[in-house]
Design brief:
126 residues; mainly alpha; Cytochrome Bc1 Complex, Chain D, domain 2; two-stranded antiparallel ribbon; elongated; binds heme C
């Protein structure tokens, strides 16, 4: 009986964890859908590698595997703000998505962050 009781907190805390990460996964999944629906892939590529059909511009659409290349910040709020305001420089342009609800822009930002590779700093040196 005592051994059984010991398991209860463990099981409870495990299920709390699972719930939290399930929520996060569903936000990321929603971000993935929004990414497809809003045409981000046209420039950023189907997997966010910066290799979409319209990617021959300078600077090129960001490769989302490489957080260190973000120019306007990598926090969720900062990425969401970039999505809201778009980017325009001399020869390259990203549209504004200010018409999307804030929650959608955050979901997109979380999806984008989920694409970072752990060894991105190494591969960017190649
Ligand atoms: C017409 C092409 C195009 C489309 C469509 C587009 N982007 Fe971009 N995006 C770019 C380009 C080009 C850059 C890099 C601009 C620069 O560095 O000046 C960029 C940069 C970014 C950045 C990085 C900003 C930073 O801090 O460096 C994010 C995040 C981003 N795009 C998200 C998105 C999302 C999400 C969508 C869809 C909702 C999207 N983009 C649609 C072209 C596009």
């Amino acid at each position: 009986m005592a051994r059984f009781l010991l398991w209860i907190p463990l099981v409870l805390s495990l299920s709390a964890c699972a719930e939290e990460s399930a929520q996060q996964v569903s936000v990321i999944e929603r971000g993935r859908q929004l990414y497809g629906r809003n045409g981000c892939a046209t420039c950023h590529g189907p997997d966010g590698h910066g290799d979409g059909q319209i990617s021959q511009m300078q600077p090129p659409p960001r490769d989302f595997r490489q957080p260190e290349n973000f120019r306007y910040g990598y926090e969720v709020e900062q990425i969401a703000a970039t999505i809201r305001d778009g980017v325009s420089s001399d020869r390259s342009v990203m549209p504004k998505y200010g018409y999307l609800p804030a929650a959608d822009r955050s979901a997109l930002a979380m999806f984008i962050r989920s694409l970072a590779t752990p060894d991105s700093v190494e591969s960017s040196k190649e």
